[in-house]
Write a structure and sequence with these properties.
The complex is a heterodimer of chains A (406) and B (320).
Chain A: H1 2-18, E1 26-33, H2 40-59, E2 67-74, H3 80-93, E3 98-100, H4 108-114, E4 120-122, H5 127-135, E5 143-145, H6 150-163, E6 172-178, H7 181-196, E7 200-207, H8 215-224, E8 228-232, H9 236-246, E9 254-256, H10 264-270, E10 278-281, H11 293-306, H12 314-331, H13 337-347, E11 349-350, E12 355-356, E13 372-378, E14 381-388, E15 392-393
Parallel strand pairs in A: 1-2, 1-3, 3-4, 4-5, 6-7, 6-8, 8-9
Antiparallel strand pairs in A: 10-13, 11-12, 13-14, 14-15
Helix pairs in contact in A: 2-12, 3-4, 6-7, 9-10, 12-13
Chain B: H1 2-14, H2 16-19, H3 23-48, H4 56-73, H5 78-100, H6 106-124, H7 126-131, E1 145-147, E2 150-152, H8 157-180, H9 182-192, H10 194-199, H11 204-230, H12 240-253, H13 260-274, H14 282-296, H15 300-308, H16 311-319
Helix pairs in contact in B: 1-8, 3-8, 3-11, 3-12, 3-13, 4-5, 4-6, 4-11, 5-6, 5-11, 8-9, 8-11, 12-13, 12-15
The chains are: A alpha/beta (406), B mainly alpha (320).
Chain lengths: 406, 320
């Protein structure tokens, strides 16, 4: 009986611990992000932007006089039933009036949240997600993508690599990408672009998340001595170990990390050691000096709260919340989801750098006031050196030839 | 055994009366039933037959993909596609089982886990894409099952729940009958002493291969059901999270304590959801709870129930 008593006590504690009281006069906002598993780093970046936007709105008296109440859901590794569960929980059970995600399932999320009406903001950067949307744009009218597709981002990465003020010693490239939808999308597009320009893709490796030992790949890289090495694995341990093992005997190669540069842990862990790495961020807030005074004020607020410069996803997710809030104010009713979604897609949103206008696929395409940002780590921080499209140098920031290239 | 199963499934059957209007709760109940079958199959092969197979998630995914591909590429009705998927998975189980006949213990675990590890790159490869797996994108448009004018899709969860319940009852009944039959006795004999069992004429080859085929078939069948219910598939299913959760289900229910695996699955799925508000601390707390429960209940929930019920009654319950 003692065992049974203890067992019941443990179960009761779990139940009691998870019951939370919710105030009646609030607007619930769903936040499905990876809180555990390999995507935790990027999930954290998104959360910082979302939290900042919600706190700002609440501090200013709320939305239509009501406080925003974030309801979080751990999407873990985006297993199909987990994505659906998130939609059923947030939209079906919690009845949230908007959903703010980051990476959310590369198309699975469009199906899962398209069943409901609450505006849903994702940062999939995925052509697959756009393809699902195109199957029935009316049904998926509540789905908004905060960034352009993997194909367009990879094309932008390629364009900037070609525009770098650097004399490549040869036309050989090594592409290493993760075996997920994002990694494959970027890797395939880069490979096609390089081949089209007459480059030799001397090595293309697809690796799983969790790869920490790069010995065999590094041996081949050293034999090839490529002009460019592109690594696309959005997880800090993988790219940090790659860099450190590369630096034991570096080749005179530009190290391009694409979107892999974004987990905060990369520059936080390596600091100045990472100087020279280049990377890309869609829906970018250029740093360290922002393009407009409003944007600069935003960067300073962000840095004040989180004690570091904004990483990829933070500003995109922040802007998603603000765009939705502006639409709710314009419509005057957070429950009128269809009108709110229509307002977002037709009117857009005036953000810190200028206008956000979603295209007919409800995708925030790179360009205009919200370009792709291309960064180099300099003095331990990410510095914007180019924006695209069109490819142009950003302010007075210059590309610096990495120290390992003699 | 049968009384416990009847009680558990009986309680499950009336739950939609209370939570039927909540899609999220219904989804959790459906997942409880799906994982209950997978965990029970794992229990049959590991707990009763004593084969340390770590390929159960892989078989589940093979079944799910096979059923989706049959229905999309060949236009086969989802129900028939599920059965075909079960057969494909059974064939895969036999193929995996054959080399395992020469191995013991941890080596079988290694071989079967290798299948799990190989499956993801295969599904993402050019060969996988040619078969219709969708590569890294996965399969995003799987038709739901339609029977007697009812669509068993994600937006009709009560119908899906009762279909899942029927499937779980049938699969559990098959597992129970196998355990109670001479096959079950043979499994136990082989598990306890293979040499002695062989001296009595029990063929290790026949019975071990049969258990691989049966558990793979049932797991593949329920994998197919999952595919048509969720409507999309990706290799995320092969992540370590699900594998660990299934292992927890088995340990919590009690290995070789059927129908403990069913109870373990229900408690693990629901417990995991209840811990969701803990966010990043969820795996930590879940892990700690498992350690505590395993220390307190080495024979799982079924062991606890048996210790609470007087011996004679327990014996009657065990005998059904």
């Amino acid at each position: 009986m003692k065992k049974l008593g203890l067992f019941i006590l443990i179960c009761s504690a779990i139940v009691m611990g998870t019951i939370s009281a919710h105030a009646a006069d609030v607007i619930k906002v769903g936040v499905p992000l990876a809180m555990t598993g390999p995507y935790t780093d990027t999930g954290d970046n998104y959360w910082k932007g979302i939290k900042m936007a919600i706190d700002e709105i609440n501090a200013a008296g709320g939305l239509l006089g009501k406080q925003l109440d974030p309801v979080r859901f751990d999407t873990q590794e985006f297993a199909p039933e987990r994505v659906m569960q998130g939609a059923d929980y947030l939209c079906g059970q919690e009845k949230v009036d908007s959903v703010h995600a980051g990476w959310a399932g590369w198309g699975q999320d469009v199906r899962a949240y398209g069943k409901y009406t609450a505006p849903f903001f994702a940062d999939d950067g995925s052509q697959a997600a756009v393809d699902v949307f195109r199957e029935d744009p009316k049904k998926y009218a509540n789905i908004f993508q905060l960034t352009d597709t993997d194909i367009n981002q990879a094309t932008s990465m390629f364009n900037v690599l070609m525009a770098l003020p650097h004399d490549y010693p040869n036309k050989k490239v090594v592409i290493i990408n993760a075996d997920d939808a994002w990694g494959m999308g970027v890797g395939d597009t880069l490979e096609a672009n390089f081949k089209k320009e007459g480059w030799e893709v001397a090595l293309r490796e697809v690796v799983p998340y969790g790869t920490r030992e790069w010995g065999s790949i590094m041996t081949r890289v050293r034999r090839i001595k490529p002009a460019i090495i592109h690594v696309e694995i959005v997880s800090a341990p993988e790219v940090i170990t790659f860099f450190r093992q590369f630096m034991r005997t570096p080749t005179p190669s530009i190290l391009s990390y694409g979107y892999s540069i974004v987990p905060r842990e990369v520059v936080q862990t390596m600091g100045k050691e990472a100087d020279g790495l280049i990377g890309e961020v869609p829906t970018a807030m250029p740093t360290p000096e922002a393009p407009t005074p409003e944007a600069q004020a935003w960067v300073e607020r962000f840095t004040g709260i989180w004690k570091h410069q904004p990483q990829a996803g933070s500003w995109a997710a922040y802007s998603g919340v603000k765009a939705w809030a502006a639409a709710v104010v314009a419509v005057g009713d957070e429950k009128n989801h269809a009108a709110v979604a229509k307002h977002i897609s037709t009117e857009g949103y005036k953000g810190e750098t200028g206008w956000w206008k979603w295209d007919e696929d409800n995708v925030m395409r790179g360009g205009g006031d919200v370009p792709f940002g291309h960064y180099q780590v300099q003095n331990g921080e990410m510095v914007t050196i180019f924006t695209d499209p069109p490819v142009k140098p950003y302010k007075d920031y210059k590309f610096i030839t990495p120290r390992w290239i003699k | 055994m049968s009384a416990t199963m009847a009680l558990v499934f009986g309680i499950m059957a009336v739950l939609p009366l209370f939570v039927g209007g909540t899609a999220h709760m219904m989804h959790i109940l459906i997942m409880c039933l799906i994982w209950a079958v997978v965990a029970s199959c794992w229990d049959l092969i590991m707990g009763f037959a004593g084969i340390f197979s770590f390929g159960q998630v892989a078989f589940f995914v093979i079944g799910a993909y096979a059923s989706a591909i049959f229905s999309i590429q060949l236009g086969i009705h989802p129900l028939a596609a599920m059965v075909l998927a079960g057969l494909v998975t059974a064939a895969a189980g036999v193929l995996v089982g054959l080399p395992c006949m020469r191995l013991k213990g941890a080596y079988i675990a290694l071989v079967t886990f290798a299948v799990h590890m190989i499956l993801e790159p295969f599904l993402k490869s050019g060969m996988g894409r040619a078969l219709g797996t969708g590569g890294t994108r996965g399969i995003l448009t799987i038709p739901p099952m339609e029977l007697f004018g009812i669509t068993f899709a994600a937006d009709n969860k009560i119908a899906v729940f009762y279909a899942a319940l029927a499937l779980a009852v049938i699969c559990s009944a098959i597992i129970m009958l196998v355990i109670r039959s001479s096959w079950g006795t043979a499994f136990l004999a082989l598990k306890d002493s293979q040499d002695f069992a062989a001296s009595l004429g029990v063929s290790a080859f026949k019975y071990k291969l049969a258990v691989f085929a049966l558990t793979s078939f049932l797991t593949g069948l329920v994998g197919g059901f999952y595919a048509h219910y969720i409507g999309m598939l990706s290799t995320r299913l092969l992540g370590i999270d699900l594998f660990v959760m299934l292992m927890i289900m088995l340990v919590l229910g009690g290995i070789g304590q059927f129908p403990g695996a069913i109870l373990g699955a229900i408690m693990t799925v629901i417990g995991n959801e209840m811990l969701a508000p803990l966010g990043a601390y969820r795996p930590l707390v879940l892990g700690a709870l498992v350690v505590v429960l395993v220390l307190l209940l080495p024979d799982g929930i079924m062991g606890l129930l048996r210790s609470l019920v007087p011996h004679k009654v327990a014996e009657q319950v065990r005998q059904g």
